[in-house]
Amino acid sequence: MIRSVIVGTGSALPARRVSNAELAETVDTTDEWIVERTGIRFRHIAAPDETTATLAADACRAALGAAGLAAQDIDLIVLATATPDQTFPSSATKVQASLGINDCVAFDVAAVCSGFLYALQVADSMIRAGSARRALVIGSETFSRILDWEDRTTCVLFGDGAGAVVLEGQDNGDAGAEGRGILSTRLHADGRHNELLYVDGGPSTTGTVGKVRMKGREVFRHAVVNLAGVMTETLAACSLSAEDVDWVVPHQANARILDATARKLGLSPDKVVVTVDQHANTSAASVPLALDTAVKDGRIKRGDLIVLEAMGGGFTWGAAVVRF
Ligand code: UT7
After folding, report:
1. Is 113 a catalytic residue?
2. Is the CB of 9 under 6 A from ligand 1?
3. What's the gap in Å between 139 CA and the centre of ligand 1?
4. Tell me: the pLDDT tens digits for 109-133?
5. Where does residue 37 rank: exposed (0-12), middle (13-18), buried (19+ CB within 10 A)?
6. What pTM value is reported for the model?
């Protein structure tokens, strides 16, 4: 039986790191409010020459290096983003060109903060169906470009960055839950909640890029319920439960959401990877960025059972259970 195994992770952050105190010089906010309500202390903000595609390509180079593979070994690139370099062509094809791969499948996926989970399931399905062998799955965002810097209820929450994994199809026989690879994934969407988290522009409506708008308190309420639900569902799909989990790698929107979700599942907060303090909410990039951070610092080790989860605009949400 073919399984998609994560054989390398990588990430990239813009050079400029901005503290809450620096933001408070231009926005009507305080370090105390941001830390208490969100857990965020820093975010990285892209310079004009740092784009979704350049950050993604840097993350891919790091992931390929960690996997010991060359760009030419890749036959599929799936890039999750809500902030592409251009309306078209896809940023995935820009990454492909930057890596020097002249012929492979490459496309973007739009599911906002859950984008990486969507991209992961698409790539996993293609690998298991035999249409790809090795894939780069990327989450990359430059949300700073679509923030309204005069709206303190949103602009303090987001940051820029990219994370990537190399997925490889491996024949794991019938190794069960002990065998490496993606064990199960579950995705959801409920388009009735568009107005709670959206961008007020687009090519087909205003002809502009638009800015992020969010009713944060309502998103928060849905997030905890949906995330706890989809994690339980995804674990049950491979006959596992919260006790089996070594690490949860969540979407990094708010430290209070991470705590509340862990509590709902009866999981110790020590098993939750938290990077929101350093990166803020990087939308589709946040899960692979947090994953790479915890792999690099030695927390996540080969053989660990990890659960990736995210929820965002749409609403969309999803989870993946992976034997790392
Ligand atoms: O990634 C996609 C998923 N997104 C999320 O999961 C985000 C979910 N939501 C959240 O993380 C939280 O709801 C927020 C962090 C966005 C807001 O926290 P909250 O505890 O729900 O605050 P609130 O929106 O209820 O606002 C409380 C107060 C308000 O003042 P009043 O009306 O009570 O006087 C806001 O005007 O805090 C005020 N406020 C601020 N004050 C200082 C809002 N933003 C700021 C700010 N600095 N940046």
Report:
1. yes
2. no
3. 25
4. 999 999 999 999 999 999 999 999 9
5. middle
6. 0.98
